[in-house]
Design a protein that fits this description.
Keywords: DNA-binding, Transcription, Transcription regulation. Helix content is 36%, strand content 20%. With 151 residues, it is α+β, with helices and mostly antiparallel strands. The chain has two domains: 3-43, Arc Repressor Mutant, subunit A (Orthogonal Bundle); 56-137, Lrp/AsnC effector binding domain/regulation of amino acid metabolism (RAM) domain (Alpha-Beta Plaits), CATH 3.30.70.920. A four-stranded antiparallel beta sheet has the order 2-3-1-4.
C-alpha cells in the first residue's frame, strides 16, 4: 500500500460517499487511476463496506451497554456455535473475542434499561454455553466510531 492508497483510505473514511472525481482531485491522480485503486482496495477487502452511521436515539435505542461474556467450558465445547448465535442477535452491534477474565466483549443497544435487562436475562443467558455476563451501561458516548489512524 503506497501513499496514494493511504490517502484514498483517509478520505473515504471521512466521506464514503465522495465521488470518484472529487477523490481523484484530492489525491492528485486521474479519475481512472483513482477508480482502479479503489476497486483494488475493495477486492482485497481493505475497504470492507460503505455504511451510514445512524444515531441510535433516532431509532429509539436510548441505551447502550458493554457486556462481558464468559463461556462455560465444562458444558459446551462448540465455541463457533455460540459465536454464530451471537452474530444473529440484532441488539449486539459489535462482538470481540478478548483476553483476560472474560471470553467476549459485546456492544449492545436497547430501547431502555428494562429491554436491556430482558435481552440479557431472557435471551443471552439462555444461549447454550454462556456461563456468565457482566454489563456496563454507557452513560455518554464521547467519541463515536471513527476511522482508523492512517499514517
Amino acid at each position: 500500500m503506497d501513499v496514494y492508497d493511504r490517502s484514498i483510505l483517509r478520505h473515504l473514511q471521512q466521506d464514503g460517499r465522495m465521488s470518484n472525481l472529487s477523490l481523484a482531485e484530492r489525491i492528485h491522480l486521474s479519475a481512472p487511476q483513482t477508480l482502479r485503486r479503489v476497486r483494488m482496495l475493495e477486492e482485497k477487502a481493505v475497504i470492507r463496506a460503505y455504511v451510514a452511521q445512524v444515531a441510535p436515539e433516532a431509532l429509539g435505542l436510548g441505551v447502550m451497554a458493554f457486556v462481558n461474556l464468559s463461556l462455560d467450558r465444562e458444558q459446551f465445547r462448540n465455541v463457533r456455535e455460540v459465536e454464530r448465535q451471537l452474530k444473529a442477535f440484532p441488539q449486539i452491534i459489535e462482538c470481540h473475542t478478548i483476553s483476560g477474565d472474560f471470553d467476549y466483549i459485546l456492544k449492545v443497544v436497547a430501547s431502555d434499561l428494562k429491554n436491556l435487562s430482558q435481552f440479557l436475562t431472557d435471551t443471552l443467558m439462555q444461549v447454550p454455553g454462556v456461563a456468565s455476563l457482566r454489563s456496563m451501561i454507557c452513560m455518554e458516548e464521547i467519541k463515536p466510531v471513527s476511522g482508523l489512524p492512517i499514517e
